[in-house]
Amino acid sequence: MTVSNSRTPTSSGLSPRIAPLVLLILGSLWGLNTSLIKLAGLEGVPPIGLSTLQMSGAAVIVVLFCRWRGIGLHFDRAHLSYYLHVGVLGTAVPSVNLVNTLRELPAGVMVLAIATVPLLTYLGSLAFRMERFDLGRFAGVVLGLAGVAMIVLPSTSLPEADDTMWFLIGMITPVMYSYSAIAAARLRPENGSSVGLAGGMLICIAALLWPIAGLAGQVYIPNVAAPDLPALCIAIVTLVTALAYFLYFELIRAIGPVSISVVGYVVTLTGMIFGMIFFGESHSAWVWAAAGLIFAGLALVNGRQAAGALMNSVRG
What we know:
The chain is mostly helical.
């Protein structure tokens, strides 16, 4: 499957000319979220409880927006299948895993793991025959995976000996995110709008996570009367998640899905920077070399196509 960069012209909404600025904002917000999630976890917020509040709050905001704009929410068999694969398996599971892993690993290292999503998505697309084999793009996947190996194999790459195991556990998150991207392309209902699908998906995620959090003893209720640091982190993470959905869908409408993949570079850079600011993180030469290989891999997989599409969109 070749992704189209077509967009529907509208008289209102985001202008393609300011898309690069919005891409920077969106990438920075996603990069910030990683550090905020880690901070909340270190303050004692349980992983499932944090993900439950994050998804529930974002669901309320997105659903209210849908009601305001008259966007319908659907819960028939096709939509529920989409919500299960894209939402529960491709969003909720990696979200909980991310929160849990960030308690053990530097935020900057986990951002590098998440940066491999486009590489893994391309591999999955090849397996499902959704993409044609391209030697250059496949070489990009090899480079990216070599970068992952540089984080995992050298004994001096990560701060602690047990961090290698946690990094491998953390890689479940990008694997499931790539599964979400493939499932979204294969299972998207014909009559579903992007915002409406996000609203229905978030409702289903929240409905599933609340009982799971209860059974696991991880329900977390922030102190609303006297907000503390965990409550503030959760509130910001929730708002950022909802805002990111809006910016993401607006960017897709304005410049197309190929162009928006450039945001991955911004997320990785800002995520590592915020990790240094919030937690004083420093990385070994192995990790920085791994970052270089992962970036080179991303550039080969979709960088040239994405950058070209973005410039064409901005020029109109």
